[in-house]
Specification:
Chemotaxis protein CheW; 304 residues; 5-stranded mixed β-sheet; disordered N terminus; globular; 2 domains
Length: 304
């Protein structure tokens, strides 16, 4: 029996305003450095303050407060600010914030979905409390998608009619807590007329998988984010692989992190593939590999 990954992810707490504390998962954080003078990038997004050269890397630095709708940083504030360097969506990006609080341990199962009253387009993917303070977990992927939109070609896969017909009969479940990631996944499959189901949490996905198996129509391909509050992608893969009713599903985990660690740990918990998101053709070809494995394991007579 495989064991679930023991990698723990904490939360980095920081401030965009004097009163409200925000957080991101520490797996996305490469480094935290004091403010350093920036080089202006011509024709850049209004929230991009400039570029910083750090450890031999040149990276854009975003005013995170302005990017999520709070008052922008003022020149006289900069000397007291910090840059959070993140590894997300295959790029290094710095986020300038008004202050760093601390890194704290986190039970990701205790993070709740944001209240529906906040609307559908907020940059918050979850809420929790630390020392009786409300903490809002920021959706870094949504933020970056607004500042650095994906190239149109990366969202729409290209495949042959034969490949499309291979995928169309399969029962596919997409799982992601990020609204922007779900939209990307949906657009990719919609553009090639591939049907699918969606879950917004790992727990909901596991229940959908169980109900489908009980009904005699199990899911055959599971595509799940790794970094999710509650039941994360690692744990979901572990649960699926160690349940005889579910473990025929081909598991594709995807992550906004560019780390090889994420990929190796995905394999440890039983995932068949791990991708850094998002590139539509990579995802579709991973699904095609899953379809081939399903065909080998389930002869035509059995699938009829």
């Amino acid at each position: 029996m495989k064991s679930a990954t023991n990698q723990s992810q904490g939360m980095l707490l920081f401030h965009l305003t004097p009163l409200q504390t925000f957080a991101i998962g520490t797996l996305k954080v490469k480094e935290i450095v004091p403010y350093t003078p920036l080089t202006v990038i011509p024709h850049s997004h209004p929230t991009v303050l400039g570029a910083a050269s750090l450890r031999g890397e040149t990276l854009p630095v975003i005013d995170m407060a302005k990017a999520v709708g709070y008052p922008p940083l003022q020149p006289d504030e900069l000397k007291n600010c910090y840059i959070i360097i993140t590894d997300c969506r295959r790029m290094l990006v710095g986020f300038l914030v008004r202050g760093i609080d601390k890194i704290t341990e986190c039970n990701w199962h205790n993070i709740d979905a944001p209240p529906s009253s906040l609307g559908k387009h907020v940059f918050v993917t979850g809420v929790t409390t630390v020392e009786n303070k409300l903490i809002q977990l920021l959706d870094v992927e949504l933020l970056l998608s607004k500042v650095f939109p994906d190239a149109p070609g990366s969202l729409h896969p290209v495949l042959t009619d034969i490949e499309r017909e291979i995928l169309r009969p399969l029962k596919i479940l997409l799982v992601d807590d990020s609204a922007v990631a779900r939209r990307q996944l949906s657009q990719a499959l919609d553009s090639i007329s591939i049907p699918y189901f969606i879950a917004t949490t790992g727990s909901d996905a596991l229940e959908m998988l169980k109900h489908a198996a009980d009904a005699g129509a199990p899911f055959e391909i599971l595509v799940s984010d790794i970094e999710m509050p509650g039941l994360d992608g690692y744990e979901l893969a572990f649960e699926v692989q160690n349940n005889p009713r579910l473990n025929q599903a081909y598991i594709i985990l995807h992550t906004s992190l560019s780390s090889e660690i994420s990929v190796s740990q995905a394999h440890q918990v039983g995932a068949h593939e791990a991708l850094t998101k998002f590139e539509a053709n990579e995802l579709i070809h991973a699904m095609l590999r899953g379809a081939e494995k399903i065909k080998v394991n389930q002869p035509d007579a059995q699938r009829a």
